[in-house]
Specification:
The structure is a homodimer. The first copy, chain A, is built from 9 helices and no strands. Chain A is an all-alpha fold. Chain A starts with 10 loop residues before the first helix and ends with a helix. The structure holds a DNA duplex. Chains A, B: Keywords: DNA-binding. Chains A, B: InterPro entries: Homeodomain-like_sf (IPR009057), HTH-type_TetR-like_transc_reg (IPR050109), HTH_TetR (IPR001647).
Chain lengths: ~210, ~210
DNA sequence: GTCTATAGAACGATAGAC
DNA sequence: GTCTATCGTTCTATAGAC
C-alpha cells in the first residue's frame, strides 16, 4: 500500500490538504481574491486535482464553510454564559487580525465579505454563509433564553432575541475593526460589551418584575 | 454656447455624471464588482471619457470617497447628542439595505468591503477609506468628550474613546446585518444601542464621582 | 473632450494523456 | 487520481480618429 509522495495518496488526504489550502488563502484574500491557482499551489497539488475533488470554486467554499461551522460549534458549545460567549467571539476578531494563529476563527471575518458582495447573490457559498449565520443566531438566542429566570417565556424569548441581535452586531463590528486594522484592545472591549448587554438585561428584567 | 447633448458638455457636468454613476454602481456591487464599463454605461458616456476625467479605477473611487465624506460631514455636524448620532448612523444602515433612497449613506456599507479585502492593501482607495474612517472616529470622540461634565479631562477623554469604539462597532455591526439581509428593526435597535451606551457612561461617571 | 477598437493580463474551467 | 496545456471570458487600460 506504499504510495509515492503527492501522487495517488488517499483521496481523503488530498481533499483535506485542499481544504486547508483554501482556508489559508481565504483568510488572506477573501473569496474573490482567492484564485483556484492559488489554492492548487498552496495544497501542493495541480489545479486539475482541485477540480477533481470539488465541482467548482463555489462548491469548494461551501465545503470550507461547513468545515468551519463544525469547528465553531465545537468550541462554542461549552461556553458558560453570555459574557463568556462575547469574550470568545470578540477574541476571535483579534485572532483574525493577527491571522494565522486560528484560521477557523479568522474565517468568520472573511465570511463577512459574502454579506457585502451583492454581486454574489446567486452564489451558493454566499447562501450557505447566510444560512449558517442564521443557525448561529438561533444557537445563541436559545442559550440566552434558557438563562433568564423569573419571567414569562414570552418575555424571555423577546429579551434573548434582542440581546442576540445586539451581541451579533457587536461581534461583527469588532470583526470590522480588526479587518480595518483599528488599534483596539479586544479583550478590554469584550468586557465592556458584556457590561453594556448585562445592563440591558437587568433593566428589562427589573421592568417586568415591577409589573408582577 | 449651445452644446449638443452628451458631446462636449462642460467638463464639470460630465465629471459629476461619472461620480453619480460610480456611486450607484458601487452601492449595488462594491469595488471589485463595479467595472469601468458599468460606470461608463450608467453615466451615459463612453469609457474613454471616464479615463479622461479620472486617472484610473483607484482614483475614481478616491474621488467618490471624498465626495461621500463631505456629505457625511454635513449631515452629522448638526447631530445633537450621542443618541441622535446613533439614530442617524444606524438608520443609514437600514437605508443601505433598501439601497437607492440615500446613496451617500448606503456608500458606507460598501466602504466596509475595503476593510476586508486585504488583497487591496496597496490600493489607494482602500487607504483613503481607512484615513476617513479615522477622521470620523476623531470627529465623534471629540464631540462626546465635550459632553461629559463634572469629571477631569483625562477621564472624559478615555470615556469618550471607549464610547466611540463601542458606537463604531455597533454601527458597523448593523451595517453588516443590513448587508446580510437580517430581518431587523433598525430604528428599535438604535434606541437599544443608545440605552446600552448610556448605561456605560453613567456607570463610569458614577464610579469617578464616588472617588472625588 | 468624445468615442471606438483593441491590447494585455488574470481567472475559471475543461480536455485528455498518464 | 494526478498533471499539463489551453480555451473562453472578463476586465483594466490605452491608442488614436474625430
Amino acid at each position: 500500500m506504499a504510495t509515492r509522495r503527492k501522487t495517488h495518496q488517499g483521496s481523503e488526504v488530498s481533499k483535506q490538504a485542499i481544504l486547508e489550502a483554501v482556508l489559508s488563502r481565504a483568510v488572506e484574500a477573501g473569496y474573490e481574491g482567492t484564485t483556484m491557482a492559488d489554492v492548487a499551489r498552496a495544497s501542493g497539488l495541480p489545479i486539475g486535482s482541485v477540480y477533481w475533488h470539488f465541482q467548482n470554486k463555489e462548491q469548494l467554499f461551501v465545503a470550507l464553510l461547513d468545515h468551519c461551522f463544525e469547528v465553531w460549534r465545537r468550541t462554542h458549545a461549552s461556553a458558560a454564559d453570555m459574557r463568556e460567549l462575547l469574550r470568545r467571539s470578540i477574541a476571535d476578531s483579534a485572532a483574525a487580525s493577527g491571522s494565522l494563529a486560528d484560521p477557523a476563527a479568522a474565517f468568520w471575518s472573511i465570511g463577512l465579505v459574502f454579506a457585502f458582495e451583492r454581486r454574489l447573490e446567486d452564489n451558493l457559498a454566499r447562501q450557505r454563509y447566510l444560512a449558517i449565520r442564521e443557525e448561529m443566531f438561533e444557537f445563541i438566542a436559545s442559550r440566552l433564553r434558557a438563562s433568564y429566570a423569573g419571567v414569562t417565556e414570552d418575555v424571555a424569548a423577546e429579551l434573548a432575541h434582542d440581546i442576540a441581535v445586539m451581541g451579533r452586531a457587536l461581534t461583527d463590528g469588532f470583526r470590522v475593526a480588526a479587518a480595518a486594522g483599528d488599534d483596539t484592545d479586544f479583550t478590554r472591549y469584550a468586557e465592556l460589551a458584556a457590561d453594556a448587554l448585562e445592563s440591558l438585561v437587568s433593566a428589562r428584567l427589573r421592568e417586568h418584575a415591577q409589573r408582577a
